[in-house]
Specification:
single chain, mainly alpha, Four Helix Bundle (Hemerythrin (Met), subunit A), Histidine kinase, phosphoprotein, HPT_dom_sf
Length: about 110
């Protein structure tokens, strides 16, 4: 697994496209991601719900350049169908990865003022 937490090229591209709305995009991603992590924790024993949440979280993470987070969500999405692994452990990994990238996004957000 690639060990890239944040792809700076993706962020640069988004900043260019979004211009003044870029900080709002980051805020929305952080808020939505926090809710998704909480939903994953609550759905810990429901493989179908985990797969659904992981699918949408994978998309938003990938779109915002959170490479490893997107990869972990993809693994959870696949394994929730196969039920071949300890899904709770993957939820923990996603939770941990979000805890790592959250301050990176917050720092990126602060570069553009309040």
């Amino acid at each position: 697994m690639v060990d890239i937490h944040l792809d700076p090229d993706v962020l640069s591209g988004l900043q260019e496209v979004m211009e003044g709305e870029y900080p709002k995009l980051l805020d929305t991603f952080l808020d939505d991601s926090q809710k998704r992590v909480e939903a994953l924790r609550k759905a810990r024993d429901d493989a179908k719900a985990l797969g659904r949440i992981a699918h949408s979280f994978k998309g938003s993470s990938g779109n915002l350049g959170a490479v490893r987070l997107a990869q972990l969500c993809q693994r959870l999405e696949v394994e929730s169908v196969e039920s071949s692994a300890d899904l709770g452990a993957l939820v923990d990994q996603i939770d941990h990865e979000f805890a790592l990238v959250k301050p990176l996004y917050e720092s990126e957000r602060q570069r553009f003022g309040v």
